[in-house]
Amino acid sequence: MDIKKFWDEGVSYDTYLQQAQESVDHPKTQLEKDYHEYYVLGVQRMNRMSKIYQPDEEQLKTLAEKKFKGKILIIAEPWCGDASQALPVVHSFFSGYAIRITYRDQTPSLIDDFLSNGSKSIPKIIFLDENFKVISSWGPRPAYGHELFMKHKADPGTYTEEELHNDLQVYYAKNKGIDTIQEILALI
To answer: How deeply is 172 buried, as exposed, middle or buried, from its count of CB atoms within 10 A (0-12, 13-18, 19+)?
Structure first.
């Protein structure tokens, strides 16, 4: 895939948030209608995380020491609970960097080149150098969130999907993006 094409066609975080709100206010596609409640939750979560997230000073020092000079391309969808937690954090923490967002469900999609254990899980945050060469990628959720997900997969009868989603949201609210950034910093 030509990653630069996806970069060029990607949108800014502000446009992404605006388009998500438009999907809430005026759903047009069948997916927007079917996933309406998830779009509503996604917008609420992005707005909340944007308000509560404060970049950690030590993490900012680590970023400066890394001398990262690239760009960040994110594969996401506004209805995704993990994406709605991660995108505001990445947008705020990397505010001095070029960031673009491409949609997973567009055709063609870049996600096929960034599968997570064979799945099209999002968000996928891709770090590029100045020439659009992939440095690394992160996603779809921090390690603790992945542990919760695997617990559900191992025994969905005991640890239900509802419990998983609740525990994930409690974790995201308490952690406030710290783990997401810490894991990303380890990759760049």
So the answer is: buried
Confirm if 83 and 76 have CB atoms less than 8 A apart.
yes
β-pairing, 71-76 vs 124-128, is antiparallel
Structural contact between residues 43 and 76, judged by C-beta atoms closer than 8 angstroms: no
Residue 116: strand, helix, or coil: strand
CB-based contact 76:85 (threshold 8 Å): no
CATH architecture of the domain with range 3-140+180-187: 3-Layer(aba) Sandwich (3.40)
Q: What spatial distance separates the first Cα and last Cα of the chain, rounded to whole Å? A: 22
Give the pLDDT means over successive 10-residue stretches in the chain (188 positions): 92 97 96 96 96 96 96 97 97 97 87 91 96 96 96 96 95 96 96
The two tokens of residue 60 are 């900012």
Which amino acid is it at 6?
F
List residues bridging with 71 in a β-sheet.
Answer: 128
Instruction: Break the chain into its structural domains and give their ranges.
Output: 3-140+180-187
